[in-house]
Amino acid sequence: MSLKNQSLKVSVIIPTVEYDQNLKNLLIDLGKQTFVFEEIIVVAKSASVNVDDGFLGERKVKVFVKSEMNKSAACNFGSQMAVGEVLVFLDDDCVPAAENWLSTLVEPFISDMQAEAVSGRITVPGSSLTNSFVRQMNGLGTPDYGDVDFAFKDQFKAFPATNLAVKKSVYQSLGGFDSEMHVAEDVDFYIKLHEKNMTANYASKAVMHHLHADSLAGLLRHSWKTGVGSCGFIRKHGFWNKYLPGTSLSVFCIPLFLLSAVLVFLAVAGVVNPLLLLVY
Question: Apex CA 14: angle with CA 11 and CA 17, to 5°?
Fold first, then answer.
């Protein structure tokens, strides 16, 4: 890799709840990347996240415990702590598809200095019914724009912060993610990017696998959180389909959210066994 590439300082920011196997696997995979990033910043809700200093050798892992912060606020805090000129945001349940994932993701910043943000491709692996459902509905943070790289400025597209790189100066000038939003903070960020007439790139070869819930109970839990969190986005911008044509997020999250609410109500009323909620 050229010195020019390696001179780009990159900080990877991962908001998380606790130190589970998914996060551990992600950190191990990040340690195998051919591009040497400056640091990994983990902003956790739980003090259980305690990564040894030498976990990734010379690649630094910094852990901050901020139990009061949601994902958006945690990302903003991570950006303030970061020393990199480019910020890469990941979810804690992701797996890079290749060891050159990061070098591919940040390449547009090196080859095209007009790029303010870059998103890679996101896939949902697995053959379970729930994963197939997520892929078919093209929601829950999985828009996939295919195998062709492109840049956009005049048209609007949005990408999830599951595989997102953005210049630190741009991120901070736009105020980062809206900390009042519990979901869709990334779509809201791209709306601000678009309104400022900034350029974003799609790097189709920078593939990240997103490990969504592989059970019906997990899908319902995720949908509950997404349905509740969507209210903030809808109040601010209107329904999702206005910004993500072709997706059905607002369509299938609302019924699943309502189903979740019905289950809770029936359990409280004693109609169904409350133990069902523990499984759910």
Answer: 155
